[in-house]
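for the record, two folds in this file. i put them one after another cuz i was lazy. first one right below, seq on top, structure tokens after. the second one comes after a little note so u can tell where it starts
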Amino acid sequence: MCLNIGNYVANLGIPVLYLDTELTQDMMLGRLVSLISEVPIDQIETGQFTQNQSLTKKLAEVANTSKRPIYYYNISGKHYSEWLSIMRRFIMKIAGLNPETGTANPCLIVLDYIKCMNLDHAGKFEEHQHLGQLATDLHNFCIQYGIPVFAAVQLNRDGITKEDQSVIAGSDKLLGLCSSFTIMKNKTEEDYAADPKENGNKKLIVNTVRFGIGCQDGEYINVIADLARSKMSEGMTNIEVRRGKPQSMKFANNDRSEAVNI
């Protein structure tokens, strides 16, 4: 999800800083190339694509034409104060500042994902207090520079059965200071009974929002997840399925008949 959003925004020419707490640059590059070329990840990672001329051609086209402004940085083991320093350098050196407002030019920061790296970083605080301070400082940073941050968090055990605000792991401030909190889960057998798999195999529940209405009770947005190619596409809501609307998402300024990449 983080990679799809980052790639989409970067493809618009808007610089994206991708901060990663788990994988490596090589791993993420393989996934990004797979997403852009639609060549399966395992074919890229093992080099099997070289045995298929059409796949080799696809990857060559990507190498020749794809120059997306995505800046990757692995932040594993770093204190969140270092995250903020990396973000600040990105704004100053890459995105730039608007001289009239003092805020950043259009850009996006993707944080994959918020967590306490180790208890040493928490110092005298409990883990939830450390994460709460992280959320506060990150929120203040966004306000100062006028930038959006798309951040992932983990769900707790309640997330297996529940789909409300109680499922976010770590700290209540992670929820209280965000503009939108959306849960992504696999669809259940009950979901499939009323909403076939071809409409989507995962779902987004827009739980808490500061702008708009979010999802109503029992409503979710379908996501067609092709994990073999790191690709996620947005489908219609399950409510639209029940009402028998066309298999497409409607946009105020641009009606599109096909599913759209997230």
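(here's the note) second protein begins now
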Amino acid sequence: LGVEVFFVISGYLITLLLIGEYERSKRIDLRQFWLRRFRRLLPALYLVLAIVAAYITLSYTITREESRGDFLGGILYVSNWYQIFVGQGYASSEAFVPLRHLWSLAVEVQFYVLWPLLLWGLLRSPPAARGRHAVLAGIVLLLAAAAFTLGQVALATAPGFAYYTLPARCGALLLGAALALAW
């Protein structure tokens, strides 16, 4: 539940920032947006990775070789897909997977890459100026409902996909985006 609430808040804040920039300048500087996001996320991520690497080197030498993929997935913000690929779920039996939590950061960054592009396209569409945000909020809510449905179907057939991926988790992010558009 905490992760879902975090995703709603994140979708809301990011969308609000993007809408504000678009309303001020009639454009969204995607390069600057992505640079700001990575400048905010990378230092903390690299600090965590360095601390975990030192801890594994000193205390868990047996898992050092097994953790390389976790580190690479974390650095590239694809740890969610890596964990699906190797079968590392929250319910899996591995006793020590210190970077398992990075899946949510990967989902968030993947949203940061795709959502501004979609939102920029939606904001530039021709609906009447007065009803633009209401129309956009409706579209986003439909996308969120579709994503939630996809997540529920995937949960029954592929739990890793339903738990770790952007398509299955974007309902909460898009709900936050819809709230920002409606606001």
